[in-house]
Amino acid sequence: MRLKDKIAVITGSARGIGKATAVKFAQEGAKVVVCDINLEQVNETVDEIKGMGFEAIGFKMDVTNRTEIDAVIAATVVQLGRFDCIVNNAGITADNTLLKLTESEWDRVINVNLKGVYNCAQAAAVVMAEQGYGVILNASSVVGLYGNFGQTNYAAAKWGVIGMTKTWAKELGKKGIRVNAVAPGFILTPMTEKMPEKVLEMMKDKAPLKSLGYPEDIANAYAFLASDEARFITGAVLSVDGGIVL
Predict the structure, then answer these.
(1) Which domains does the chain have, with CATH numbers?
(2) 3: DSSP letter
(3) Quick one: which of 19, 42, 210, 244 could link to 58 by a disulfide (CB 3.0–4.6 Å)?
């Protein structure tokens, strides 16, 4: 198992890509810390992972609330002794074209998808620097790389995540910390369920592989980047998109 005995904190992991990542990490031998804003869903995910015979604990955590983040990091260290990896997966959408985008829609997405990643990574980096090792994995998107109609706020946040990833890789490498990002394409999650069926079909047809992705496809990428197999990879952005941007 490539993540045997590693400890991983995964934000937004009560459903979708985050949940698939929590399950994958557990299957690969990691002790998983499930974090999400919905405590009921957190508990359901923890119970599901434990039901598979793996180890997991869970916390309610809002990535825009630094007090909650610090408490989760501290509790993880107290209960599990340390932690090796954080996956900054939590994210939301509030789509609108530029001419209609409201300040509230802009602020909500930036606060969760950009500042939330900064909040969690900084809190994690403090502990990892003291340990002398760690892995920080951030959720970007092909939208951050290439833009997308009606997603000014989302594109800005996900592009910003790439900039932070590369900056942190330069800053934290000497402390034994690797920092990478994954840029998913269109993945079948509760988030994409909001999109019209004709749009999803168009995206499927546009991709060379003629398919949309599954949460497990992204989870597999995170598992690789978290493992020792990726020990010489930092500052990278791994696109997992079925070739849709080619």
Answers:
(1) 7-240 (3.40.50.720)
(2) T
(3) 42
What DSSP state is assigned to residue 151? B
Average of pLDDT values for 149-162? 97
At residue 222 the predicted structure's pLDDT band, cuts being 50, 70 and 90, is: very high
Decide: residue 208, CB within 10 A, 0-12 exposed, 13-18 middle, 19+ buried.
exposed
Question: Which residue is catalytic, options 118, 133, 154, 214?
Answer: 154
Q: With a cut of 80, say whether residue 47 has pLDDT above it.
A: yes
Tell me whether residue 222 is one of the annotated catalytic residues: no
Q: Where are the beta strands (DSSP E) in 83-242?
A: 85-88, 134-139, 177-184, 237-240
Give Cα separations from 124 to 38, 92, 114, 225 (angstroms): 21, 21, 16, 17
Task: Scan for tokens 């109609």, then name that residue.
Answer: 149
pLDDT at residue 107 greater than cutoff 90: yes
Q: What is the pTM of this model?
A: 0.95
Report whether 241 contacts 185 (CB < 8 A). Answer: yes
E-state strands within 64-126 = 85-88
